[in-house]
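Input sequence (384 aa), recorded before submission:
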Amino acid sequence: LISHLAKRKWRNVDRYSGLVISGRSSGLPLVLVSQARMAMVPIAILVSIMSSVLIVSANKVIFSYRAFHHHGCLLASHMAATWFVSYLMTRSQSLPSDLPSARVFTDSLWTAGSVLLMNFNLNVNTVSIYQFSKLLIVPAQLVYQRKLNSSWDVKGSIGVLCAGLTIVFVTDLSITLIGFIAALLGVYATVVSQARVQFSQMETGVNSMLYTRVLSMWQVPISLVMMCFTDMLLPVLFPTMYSTDDHSGLASLGDKDGLDAKWYWAFLFSCFMAFLVNASFCFITGKLNAVTYQVIGHTKTLLTLISGVFLFRNTVSARQATGMFIAGVGVGWYTYAMFWKPKPAPGETPAAIELVKAIAPDAQKADPETSMLLDAEDKLDRKA
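Predicted structure, token format:
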């Protein structure tokens, strides 16, 4: 509705804040436009959670067929579908001239590389090591963005969430040297890629859907190059991993021969879910931050575990139940700290107060009227 009104009423809308900068201003108040755009955040969070769960289910169906074990081909198809759908949704918009192609290419390279390295991390390590490396992304993101001075509520809630999920998943921390290097590279690439996507949108002001289109446009050729490595070179270098003659290797995960209509529908559904995952990723990191996106990802994992208990009667141990409860407390605490806890006004922060104290004497010397106003405010504060 807001997008429709913006096209009809206001011809020039700021790409990032949603505020009108020229054109007719009749209709809804300008502040409602910005509020309505921010109201899309919970919808994007819900879409991110649901699409992440559904794409995993679709991929399980795809790889249940013995004839298909091409991870790189699936990644390239996901990127192509993301570009196609985002192009259809933004075909009437021109690409921003202030968005450097070299920067977008670097962002695309880091993003596609993070996917490849995390998949390699999963292949060479146990599930416990893989899950533990995913938990390390949040504190690593805080260090990378130099946000260690964040509020204690944010840091405490992230610590509680990671501790709870560690209790749930981490049972065996034995790791080899290759596994350690793979986990380290996967975490670093994920942190850098998400931070770059966040900063690129904030600094250039491009809207998330248009940025998704530009990003996926570069990711398609990059993923095709990666496909040559993962689907053509690796089977030659490690033939036992992709053997279809025995019950070992990646291909043996499939238990069905040939491809039928169910596989093709699952493939198309997976591609569309990939678009939702990528679009919600750009929206959340652009409107909020990369740390919040990671917390949402852990929340998805927690909800998947809880739904498995209630819907499919999956059994959990007392240790896992305790970890799930602790992680739930961490999610609730982070949500309160980020969205519900009252935040001080810009002039009421400690840094702003110290700045006012530092410049107040100079302001009083330069402007006697300012000195009188400051004295009057000081008297009122003492009286109160």
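Checked by second reader. Residues 1-33, 244-254 have pLDDT under 50 and may be disordered.
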